[in-house]
Every structure is written in C-alpha cells, then in structure tokens.
Amino acid sequence: MTTALHAPIRRKAASTPGRRNWGYTALALFFLAIMLFPVYWMVNASLQPNGTTLETSWIPLKPDFTGYATAISEQAGNLGTSLVISLGSVALSLAIAAPAAYALAYFKVRGAGIVLFAILISQMIPGIVVANALYTAYNDLGLLNSIPGLILADSAHGIPFAILIIRAFMNGMPSSVIEAARVDGAGHLRAFWSIVLPLSRNSLITAGLFTFLFAWSDFLFALTLTTTEAVRPVTLGIFQYIGAYVNDWSSVMATAVLASIPAIVLLVAAQKYIAAGTTGGAVK
Amino acid sequence: MKSAHWKTRPTALAVAALVGLPLALSGCGSSSPASSSEAVTEVSVMDYYNNEPDKSFIGDALTACGTKAGVTIKRETVPGKSLISKVLQQSSSKTLPDVLMLDNPDLQQIAATGALTPLADFKIGTDNFAEGVLSAGTYKDKVYGLAPTVNTIALFYNKDILDKAGVTPPTTWDELKAAAAKLTAGDQYGLAFNANPTYEGTWQFLPVMWSNGGDEKKIDTKETEQALQLWTDLVKSGSVSSSALNWTQADVKDQFMAGKAAMMVNGPWQIPALDKQPTLQYGVVKIPVREVGQTAVAPLGGEVWTVPQTGNKARQAKAAEVVACLNSDENQLAMAKVRNTIPSKTTLADKFASENPKLATFTELIKTARARTGELGEEWPAQATKIYTAIQTALTGNASPADALKQAQGQ
Amino acid sequence: MTPRGPRRFGRQRKERFFQWLFLVPAVIYMALFFGYPVVKNVVMSFQDYTTATFFTGEAPWVGFANYVTVLSSSLFSTSLLNTALFTIGSILGQFVIGLALAIFFQRKFPLNGILRSLLLLPWLLPLIVSSAVWRWILDKDSGALNRFLGDIGIIDTGVPWLTSTSLALVAVVGVNIWIGIPFNLTILYGGLQEIPDELYEAGSLDGATGWKSFRHITWPMLRPVVSVVLVLGVVYTLKVLDIILGLTNGGPANSTQTIATQSYDLSFHEFKFGEGAALGNVLVIISLVFAVLYLRASRRAVDE
C-alpha cells in the first residue's frame, strides 16, 4: 500500500490548513463496512423472528424486537457483572504487569531470561488445562462463584500478555531518561511512578485494552469457576439460550449486540488517550 | 562474595517458585469426610436443561420430587456441551452432585469409572421400561441410570409440497430417492439431513444403517456400505445439499421451515418451533427401510438420571428417592407431553400416543429403539468417530463408500 | 560519589531488593496460575489417563507410548500440514493488513479515533456468535457471501466454502484473519505512535520520504513491537480452537483439522486424555521452537 506512504507522515496538523480530510474518512468508512459486515449481519439476525438469516433481505425491513426484550430483562445484571470483572482484571493486570515489564526491560536481573521464557510458554498452554487446575484449587479455597475469584482468574489472560507488550514498548524507549531521573536522586519507585509510567502511556492503554477484551470475552473460566447463577458474566449468560436440543438465536444475537455497546464505549474512550510521540520531547 | 551470592539467589528462587509452589498446592486436595449420621435436608442436582422451557419444567419436577422426599433441591444447570467436562472436574475434586443427569450414550463411560451407584442398591424398579432404555442405562448387568422420557428421529415431510408434487411419503429407499429427486426444484431440495463431523452426524445415519442390518462393532460390512451408498447417492444427485456436511440438526430444521427442504430427518423436540409457523403443515413417518419387510430401527436419545458415589449413604438414599420419583408414571407422561418426548415405559405408550397424535410415530419407534452404547459400552465414542469420518469421506467424494468405511474401520 | 566499604554492599542489596520487588508479584502469579497446569499437562502425557482416572486418581505410567501413538497416527500428518497452512496464512493476512491499516490511521482525519475503535468489534464478539454468523454468511445456498457474489455476477452456483475439502481451510483462514486484524492493528498503531516526529522531520530533510522513510525509520523503530506481535500472533494462532470447531468441527473430512482441534477431540470426545495432552505438548514444543528461532534471528538482525 505505497499510496498511503506518499507524503511524509505528519501528525502535528492536517496537511492543508482549513480543509478536513474527509476523503480519508470515506476510505476508512469503506474499510469499516467490509470488516464489520458480519457485525451488521449479527444485528440483522437479532431482529429476525427466528434469529437466523436464512431468508433475510439485506436490510431488516420488519424488525422483531422480542430478542431484545428477552435480553434486556434477563441479561442486564450479567452485563454489570462482566463490566466489574473486566475492569477489575485490567486494574490488577496492569498493577502487576507494568512493574514487571519495567524490571524486565531495564534491570539486568539474572532470572529475567527465565521469567520471560516462562511467560512466553504460559501463552502456549491451552486454556482448558489451566481451567481444570484452577477448579480444584478454587473449590478448596472457596473462591468459586465469586467476583474476586474471576478477576484473579481472568487476569491469567492479561498479565503475561501485558508484560510482553509493555516490555516491547519500553524497549523502544530511550534509557537515558531513566538514568537521568536516577542520577537526580529519585529512588526506583519514584522514577517508575513519575517518569516511566507517564511515558509508557500508550503501551499501558494498549495492554489495558486487550486485557479488558480478554476478560470481557472469557467464557472458559466463567463456565468452570461458577456453579450457581449468583455470579454470571454475560458470556455465560448467552448460553442459557443455547440448549442441548434447541437454540434461541434471536436472544443470543440480541444479547451479543447489547453486550458490545458498553465495551465499545469504553474502548473508544480509551483509544483517545493513545497520543502521538509521548517520548518525543522527553529526550531533549 | 556477598554480591555474587545475591546474584545467583534470585535465579534459583525463580525456578523454585515456578515449579515448587504449585506442586505444593496441588497436594492440597480435600475430600470432606461424609457424616452419615445427620438428617439429609438438601440434595444437589446437576443437569444440562439450561434453556426454557426445559429449565423451568424440569426444575419444577425436581422440586416436587424433592418435597416428596423431604429435601430441598440445590440445582446447577450447565450448557449441554460442557456437562462432561464439569462431571470430570467434579470427579477429581470429589464434589459430584447427589443426582446427576447424563446424556444416555455417556452413561457407560462414567459408570465404568466407578463413580455411579447401581440403582438396584436402592430397590428402584425397572419394570416395563423399553428395552433400549434399559440397555443404555446398564453397565455390566447393573442398571445405573433411568430415563423418564426419551426421543428418536424420523422423517418429517411438508404436506403441502408433497401434495402439490403428487408424491406420497416414501417407505423404502428407492421411494425415498425418487421422491427426493422429484421434490428438488429451484432452491428447494428434496431432503435435508445432518452429516456433520460430530456425533450428531453419526446419530442421523444410524437408522438407515441399523434397519439394513449394519452393526456398529464393525462398519466395513455390506449392509453398512449400502446405507452409506444411499446417503452418498442423495447428495451426489443433488437431492440433498452438500451443506449437509456442515449442518446441525437445528440447521436442518431451519431449512425445512424456510421451505428449502421438502423433507427432513429430525426429532420431536423441533415440534414447538415447527408449530410456531401455522402455515407449515407437516407429517411424520418412519425413516424408510431398504426393502419391504425390514424393521425400522431408530437410535435412542434422551437423558438418564443417576446417583453418583458421594460416600454419604444417607444422601445417596435420598437422591435415589428423587430419581425414582422422576421416573414415575405420572411424571413420565407429564414430562413427555411438555417436552415433546416419549415416555420410557412401554405400558404408557398407547395412552400417550392417543393423547398426543403428533408424537404417534415416535412412540411406535421407541418400542424398537436401540441404544448406541448397547453393544460397545465405553468403546462407543471411538467407533462413533469412525462412522462420521467415513460419512464425511464418502460424501465429499474422497473415496467410495466401501473404501471410506474400510479406511475408517482400520484406524 | 558512590559510598565505599560496607555501605556499598548495603546499597547494592537495597538495589536488588527493589528490583525484585517489581518482579515478584508477577512471578508469584505466574507460578500459581500456570506452574501447576504446565507440570500436570506434561505428566499427564506420560500416563494412561482416562475418565476413570478422574474418579480414582490412578493413571499408570506409559512412558512415551502416547507420543508414539499420536505422532504415528494417519491423522497427524494431515493436522500438521493444516496447522502449518492455517498459521502461515493467518499471520500473513493479519499482519500485512493490520500494518497497512495502522499506517493508514496515522493520518489525521475526522472520526479517526472512533473508527479505529469500532474495528475492535470482531475481537469483542463472543466466539459462539462470530462462528454462527460466519456459518450463515458462508452457507453455500443462502449465505450472504454467495448471494453477493451471485448478484454482481462473479459466480453462477453457490461456492461450497465450508463443505468443500479444498475450500474449507481457506474459509477458516479467512475468518481467522478477520478476527486477528484488530489485534495487529491496535498494537502496531500504538507502536507507530511511539516513533518521534523529529526522526521523520530529520529524515525528510535528507530526502527520505514515503517508502524510504518507512524502510529506514519506521521499520527499525517498530522492530521490538513487530517481534512481539508476530511471536504472540503465531503462539495464539497455533492454539486456535473455538473458531475452527464453531465453523467446521474439523471437517469436512478432516480438511480443517489442526493439531489443536485434534488434541481437543482426543481428550474430550474420545476421552483419551493422555494422548490429548501429548498432542498438546507437541504444539507447545512447536511454539517454543518458533519463538526461540525467531527471537534469535531478530536479535542477530538488530546487532548487524
């Protein structure tokens, strides 16, 4: 795609002052239309009486909202549960992963190689293996059917991933900034808190974003670590419309559509903070 | 030197932590000893009726039986596909429920592990149950599970489409092929069935295999080959869409309801959905046999209720009371009517069929229905895999039915 | 400036202590949540682990028998080939398209942020929903894709995307690329944003614009992020299970059966847990080999 690289990439101002680049917006909308067609198709299905798209036209001319009625009345609580668990997981994962990524990127610690290797291996383990082991442990510890328990478990997706991503970004950061801070007498913790974290904003937000997505879409741990309906994330809630014999697709699709909305709102808000050139001026 | 000592310590610590800590934790497995001296007030149940209307109906039935036995019910419902994973997790952490529902082909596997209690220990009677039902619930001559209602599959046909084309519901394979061919026009296929690479695909193939005398112990026989040839011919001739290789039984029902298939192989649980469309007039006949004179044999579907070994004799006894109550005559009739399934006791068949004419064909079929695990017991899953592998190979044209079956059997 | 004698040792110890303080919470978490499963999975692959084992706890040691069985089964060569094709196809598609989109979104235009976030939707949907929707879209007779292709006149009859042994793998790779693009796009975008503007300005003064600026400024600065995205991409793709099961269940006729789906099948459909674990470990070994080789190669490239 060399056409996109013709002009030097500038992010400070629009290329021609006074003219907003609606052309690029149009192009972006075109990409979006292609990429998100299945999402549109899901919305279409959610408005069909039987929930499938077997005989539908391209546009739902006679929308049927029974699926949404069911979804709203039954899944609202589950949406809240999912939100709490996902946000909690982001907080916990970043709290544990950011310092670890910093340590692995800058400190010449002997065990660093092993820890990195172990993290990479952890990403290769099939989820079901972890889930089975966790069930026994959680059962003994009484952590089943609890929100903190699920926050802890869902962070298993997020922490290793966040460490790897944040570390990769930090590797690109000039170490001269850190050295400068330490020479000025800042202790490790102060240097980390006041200098490294703000500079790593992009990586923290990116890692946090994916941690949220991992936790939000987790089904395996939700299924394994709950035995009652007391704590039921929405991914598991969807399954109450999928029986052994018969499925209620319109409720499934409606729930999926409704569940996407709060998540997308959060993601849009978060992405606004990924700003350009956070390390740019700091080197001077 | 002190600093060198510090340098190597973290490494060793890391390795030790990564391996030792979790191993130490794994030793912490607790099995709470059961005290059988206290009175039992609660019985835990696990099943996979996680969606309506089954969920409420079975829940009410359980509560009623619980009240009769003097206990409250603590129930866990899981999605169908996850039941076995949960059972295994609970087996290893010794937290199996007091009453466990299992899909009937899984019973042998679980009984073989020793996790279930023979129902004869609790003097639960097994008279008048259909032969297939008992066969499914029996492991090494002991009955471990009983199903109050069961189901099977048959041939649904769209009355209007058949009338318009002047076709009568087929009774033999030749008639089936002819009818399907005649009914294929435009975007309407003559027949729809499920041939996907899962146990569902195997399940739908069993009627034609068994009616022709084929046996699941050894599938590379002439009888099974003829059955597979039928399936292959139907797809090759275009009477059945090749999408059958990917469809589930739910997809098959969607095709039938949308008028994209004039006939379909499916089960009675689809009736509520079919009835929601009053313009759809359908009839049900047995799945055709190859020659007149052969008996239509259908596979037995449905769930059994079992009593796991929890180590607490008092709780097991109460659980057995609940299981017996679920299998009572009144419960069978009520359950079957609401859930569109068939009572397991043959003595109830006539009464049931007369009160529920839509289910008459299925009721007939249950009398001669055959359990999938009847001959092979725990070996069934491996053989079921071979059957659907052969079906897929033959239907995609990768090999002739005979070769496909030989390949699959040999694996 | 540095204190000498005993105070220097004290200061070094304090250094080390703080350094480890940063790492220890992560190490403990990883040990607790991953240590035991990994060990258990390895041990299970050397045992005859069946459903009975879950209840009785007995699992006779069989050494390498499980590995021999799975590696010599006729299905293994098929699943190995499918896994390779699936992974290579997915990574190529996801990475190239993700990078192209990330570069595109560097430009300032209205609604940039919102549109970029909306592109995360494929990742947001539960897999059960995505696979159901894609199955409908790819259906031979009534699927949206075939309807569209037919309407614009490219094809006459329906293309059997999911039921042809030659096309099913392509279809599954396509869906996996669709799912993977947001992952690549978002991380690469974040990485691109980190590259300071001054470098580009300095470069353009020397005449490095367009493709040249990409090759000499963007690509080298993006290296660490690209490494992580590729390695993690491969590791995650090798593990992909739910989307394949949801779309085709490994069919038709095993044409979309990968090592991951075969391992799941062995464990949870045929209840041969020892063999399933063995196959799962084979997958981990393949991931490891790739990760080591790739990291070594990229380190060498950086040194040059």
General description of the model:
- The complex is a heterotrimer of chains A (about 280), B (about 400) and C (about 300).
- Helices cover about 65% and strands about 0% of the residues of chain A.
- With about 280 residues, chain A is an all-alpha fold.
- Chain A starts with about 20 loop residues before the first helix and ends in a 13-residue tail after the last helix.
- In chain A, helix 3 crosses helix 6 (about 145-170).
- Chain A is globular.
- Chain A has one domain (about 65-275): MetI-like fold (Orthogonal Bundle).
- Chain A has twelve helices and no strands.
- Chain B has helices spanning about 1-25, 55-70, 85-90, 105-110, 130-135, 160-165, 175-180, 200-210, 220-235, 250-255, 270-275, 315-325, 330-340, 350-355, 360-365, 380-395, 400-410; strands at about 40-45, 70-75, 100-105, 140, 140-145, 145, 150, 155-160, 190, 260-265, 280-285, 305, 340-345.
- Chain B has two domains: about 40-150 and about 300-365, 3-Layer(aba) Sandwich (D-Maltodextrin-Binding Protein, domain 2); about 155-300 and about 375-410, 3-Layer(aba) Sandwich (D-Maltodextrin-Binding Protein, domain 2), CATH 3.40.190.10.
- Chain B starts with a helix and ends with a helix.
- By secondary structure, chain B is an alpha/beta fold.
- Chain B has a five-stranded mixed beta sheet with strand order 2-1-3-12-6, with helices on both faces.
- In chain B, helix 2 crosses helix 12 (about 315-325) and helix 8 packs across helix 9 (about 220-235).
- Chain C has about 300 residues and is mainly α.
- Chain C folds into two domains: about 1-40; about 75-305, Orthogonal Bundle (MetI-like fold).
- Chain C is about 75% helix and about 0% strand.
- Chain C contains 14 helices and no strands.
- In chain C, helix 11 (about 210-240) packs antiparallel against helix 14 (about 275-305).
- The radius of gyration of chain C is 25 Å and the shape is flat.
- Classes of the chains: A mainly alpha (about 280), B alpha/beta (about 400), C mainly alpha (about 300).
- Chains A and C meet through helix 1, helix 2, helix 3, helix 4 and helix 5 of A and helix 1, helix 4, helix 5, helix 6 and helix 7 of C.
Give the count of helical stretches of chain B: 17
Total beta strands of chain A: 0
| Biggest chain pair interface | A-C, 121 and 102 residues
Assign the structural class of chain A, choosing from mainly alpha, mainly beta, alpha/beta, alpha+beta, or little secondary structure: mainly alpha
Helix/strand-derived class of chain B?
Answer: alpha/beta
Proportion in helices of chain B: 40-55%
CATH topology of chain A: MetI-like fold
CATH class annotation of chain A = Mainly Alpha
Order of helices and strands of chain B: HEHEHEHHEEEEEHHEHHHEHEEHHEHHHH
User: The biggest beta sheet of chain A, please?
Assistant: none
Instruction: Let me know the average pLDDT of chain B.
Output: 88
Note the overall shape of chain A: globular
Envelope shape of chain B: globular
Q: Helix count of chain A, per DSSP? A: 12
Distance between the termini of chain A: 34 Å
CATH level-4 homologous superfamily of chain A: MetI-like
Give helix % range of chain A: 55-70%
Q: What CATH architecture label of chain A applies?
A: Orthogonal Bundle
